[in-house]
Every structure is written in C-alpha cells, then in structure tokens.
C-alpha cells in the first residue's frame, strides 16, 4: 500500500472516530445542561416552598430542615456535575485530538500533491490550528468554571434565604 492510500485509510478511520466522539460530546453536554436545569428547579422549589409556606408549618427553630434538604441536593448535584463535566472535558479533548490528526492528514496529503519536499507550510498550518484549539480549550474550561461559580452563588443565596425567610421575625 502506498503512502497516499495509507493516508486515505487513516482519514476514513479518523472521520469515523470523530463522528462517534462528537456524539458522545453532545450527549455529555446535553446531560450536563439537563442536570443544571434540574438543580436550579429543585432549589427553586425548596425556596418557594419555604417562602410561600404558612408560618405555622415550619417555625424558626426548624430552619435547618429546608437548609439540610437544599444542602443534600447541592452535594448530590456537585458530585454529578463534576463527574459529567470531567467526562465532557476528557471526551472533548480526545475529539479535538482526532480532529487535529484528521486535519493534519488532509494538509499533508494536499501538500504532498503540490510539492512533496515542502514541509515548512505544513508546520505553519499545524501551528495555526493548534493556536485556535488552545483558545477553544480555555473558553470551554472557563465556561464550565463560570457556570459552577454562578451555581455556587445561587446555592449560597438559596441556603441563606432558607434561614432568613423562616426566621424573619
């Protein structure tokens, strides 16, 4: 098998792998988004049940009940969110590597067809691709940390509100 046929076979394998990884990335993104929405919903239900409750149902001495329930939901969510976010980051990283390998094969093939001795253009193009990918990685990680920080602030507000709404007198 000549080098061009090997490159074609490798490109086909990488395209198939890329498609599978893309589906996994979308699954983890969707699941993580659903998890965040469910968390916000459950915390809102707890807060609204405390805020709209009859004063005789929960007295100030029992403020810890909604607080504990909210804390338990937070604990369970944080474990799940961390697990799915780390899996998402890992599979996205693998997907990025597969895309870079496929693009590298494509560029190599194109350059070999034009000028088999010119490797300088290939190196420059690969460096440009890597620069763009590094920015994407930082943006994705930054977004995950931003969401986590926003949910942490939301949780603190809910926990404080559970205490002060019940004991407002």
Layout: helices, strands, pairs:
Layout: H1 3-51, H2 64-114, H3 120-166
Helix pairs in contact: 1-2, 1-3, 2-3
Keywords: Membrane, Transmembrane, Transmembrane helix
Transmembrane segments: 33-52, 64-85, 143-166
What does this entry look like structurally?
The chain crosses the membrane at residues 33-52, 64-85, 143-166. Keywords: Membrane, Transmembrane, Transmembrane helix. It is a single chain. By secondary structure, the protein is mostly helical. It has one domain (3-166). Helix content is 87%, strand content 0%. It contains three helices and no strands. The protein has helices at 3-51, 64-114, 120-166. The radius of gyration is 25 Å and the shape is rod-shaped. The model has no long low-confidence stretch (mean pLDDT 80).
Largest sheet: none
* Proportion of helical residues: over 70%
Overall shape: it is rod-shaped
What is the radius of gyration? 25 Å
* Strand portion: under 5%
Structural class: mainly alpha
SSE pattern? HHH
Average residue pLDDT: 80
Per DSSP E runs of 2 or more residues, the count of β-strands stands at 0
The helix count comes to 3
Poorly predicted regions: none
In whole angstroms, the N-to-C terminal distance is: 83 Å
